[in-house]
Write a structure and sequence with these properties.
Blueprint: E1 2-4, H1 11-18, E2 24-26, H2 28-46, H3 71-82, E3 86-89, H4 92-106, H5 115-126, E4 129-131, E5 134-136, H6 145-155, E6 160-163, E7 166-169, H7 170-176, H8 188-193, H9 197-227, H10 237-241, H11 246-259, H12 263-266, H13 277-280, H14 282-304, E8 312-314, E9 319-321, H15 329-357, H16 380-396, H17 418-449, H18 457-467, H19 480-492, H20 494-503
Parallel strand pairs: 1-2
Antiparallel strand pairs: 3-5, 4-6, 6-7, 8-9
Helix pairs in contact: 3-6, 4-5, 4-9, 9-11, 9-14, 9-15, 9-17, 9-18, 11-14, 14-15, 15-16, 15-17, 16-17, 17-19, 18-20
């Protein structure tokens, strides 16, 4: 069981809820804080005070007064009008993340919702009621309005949801789980949708997946270094000490672990004194992406434990203040940074693939890693696929945050486009998994061709894991299923886990 406080949610806990579907509950303090902030809202309504989003309209309608009798209708209409998302729905994992992060934000007690409202959101999460949330339509400012509105529809008994894998009307999903829809009261609709949780959920899922991807990239690179009889001097720790970026140290240490005891490297048959950049500079290249990953993690960790709606309730002072915590810019820039840093991992991987398949650069291996070249094309087109994915990534990596289109009759005249940035980062990550799949396939083929010399301790284990599923390519066959299968192995974490059991934890 995970207890929400609004301030202490960790990546490890988010992963447990997203993937393993662990149960979630409010802490005692969170319950108390939610009740306090709601009390202030009720007092303001009773006193008929003018408060944005409570007794006024939204956005450009902020100057429009709302009568007491229409206050609750205002909140429901907000959800109905803002549920304007389009496109493919977010995955189950991301929807679970959105629900969890929104509940955690509300748990801080600065949003003015009722306790039963937050409890219903968590009950839905625990009962595996996953609202159908379209992935497109958020500007990433004023929060992720459209995605979160689709989440709230189900709380009202509207919209659609998956209940334990079955797509149903929202009302039917609640009924099957034994839950009752709610009627929104003052400020609750606004509090539920005025936040950055779609950006944060997609960003966190991508960040967690990238953590694994970075280790896979080091494993793939080490296999290529081994297969190409690489020079490991470039991974010497003394080099790092003269330019001490943390990611450099981590990557170099990983590579040294992975190729230790390699008979191929120890008995190399070439006179060269240094390798091309895609082998020699990997600590610097992979390391920079690792440092970017660390920075983005720090930003995400702050965001997932923040209150991001408007206006904010300060119950101890009796104040309610309009501000801009819903604006996605603090996440939009890091999401673009994440996109670029993942793209570079794929870029350098594809260049290593080129060296493996090119007889002018692979130091005695057959062209395209096939023994009967001409009759068979080997891995020729697999390199094309990697190149295509890398080129697509370059287009996707164009920063979303440099764009802004004013909305709500120019009241909301700068928006972050952070949700687009997060979605692009996830697309780039999925493409990059397939690029690394191609490198792993080519590296395994090359290591087979280097026999009887044996690869290093870690690279040998990685080779064995791939070969459990994918046989040696002795003649042409369909390569696509092999690439997809290795991508599954990468995403599952199986490859990293197996290698770490042999060489110790990778950084």
């Amino acid at each position: 069981m995970i207890y929400l406080t609004g301030s202490q949610l960790s990546f490890e806990e988010i992963e447990r809820v997203m993937i393993k579907k662990e149960q979630v509950e409010l802490s005692t303090k969170a319950r108390e804080d939610i009740v306090k902030s709601r009390k202030l809202i009720d007092e303001l309504v009773d006193n008929e005070e003018t408060v944005y989003g409570v007794t006024t309209g939204f956005g450009k309608f902020s100057d429009t007064a709302i009568s007491t009798k229409d206050i609750n209708a205002l909140q429901e209409n907000l959800i109905l009008s803002h549920a304007a998302g389009v496109g493919e729905p977010f995955s189950e994992e991301i929807v679970r993340g959105i629900m969890l992060l929104r509940a955690n934000s509300l748990s801080k007690g600065h949003s003015g919702v009722r306790l039963e409202t937050v409890k219903l959101l968590l009950d839905m999460l625990n009962e595996e009621i996953h609202p159908v949330i379209p992935s497109q339509g958020s500007l990433g400012a004023s929060g992720d309005l459209a995605p979160l509105a689709h989440m709230v529809l189900v709380m009202l008994g509207r919209g659609e949801a998956y209940y334990r894998g079955e797509r149903l009307l929202g009302s039917e999903a609640l009924k099957k789980a034994g839950l009752q829809p709610i009627k929104l009261r003052a400020k609750e609709g606004l509090a539920l949708i005025n936040g950055t949780q779609a950006i944060a959920s997609v960003g966190t899922f991508t960040w967690l997946s990238m953590k694994n991807l970075l280790k896979v990239a080091d494993i793939a690179c080490a296999m290529t270094v081994d297969a190409l009889e690489g020079i490991t001097d470039a991974f010497d720790e003394r080099i790092y000490k003269l330019r001490p970026h943390p990611g450099h140290r981590k990557t170099a240490a990983n590579l040294r672990k992975l190729v230790v005891n390699s008979e191929i490297i120890e008995n190399k048959e070439h006179p060269r004194v240094q390798d091309a950049y895609t082998l020699r500079c990997v600590p610097q290249i992979h390391g920079a992406s690792k440092d970017a990953h660390s920075h983005v993690g720090e930003v995400l960790e702050r965001e997932i434990n923040s209150t991001t709606d408007n206006p904010l309730i300060f119950s101890e002072d009796g104040d309610i203040i309009s501000g801009g915590n819903f604006h996605g810019q603090p996440l939009a820039l890091p999401m673009d940074y994440l996109s670029t840093s993942i793209s570079e991992i794929a870029n350098v991987s594809e260049r290593r693939v080129e060296r493996l398949v090119n007889p002018n650069h692979n130091f005695g291996l057959p062209a395209f890693l096939i023994e009967e070249g001409g009759v068979s094309s080997g891995f020729m087109i697999a390199q094309y696929t990697a190149a295509s994915l890398v080129s697509e990534n370059k287009s996707l990596a164009h920063p979303a945050s440099v764009d802004s289109i004013p909305s709500s009759a120019n009241q909301e005249d700068h928006v972050s486009m952070g949700t687009i940035g997060a979605r692009k980062a996830l697309s780039i990550l999925k493409n990059s998994q397939k690029v690394l799949s191609v490198e792993l396939l080519c590296a395994c083929q090359a290591l087979d061709l280097r026999k009887p010399r044996k690869p290093g301790k870690g690279t040998k284990k990685a080779f064995e894991i791939i070969r459990e599923e994918i046989p040696y390519l002795d003649q042409d066959r369909e390569i696509s299923p092999d690439i997809e299968k290795v991508a599954e192995i990468i995403a599952s974490g199986k490859l990293v886990k197996a290698v770490e059991e042999v060489v110790g934890k990778l950084e």
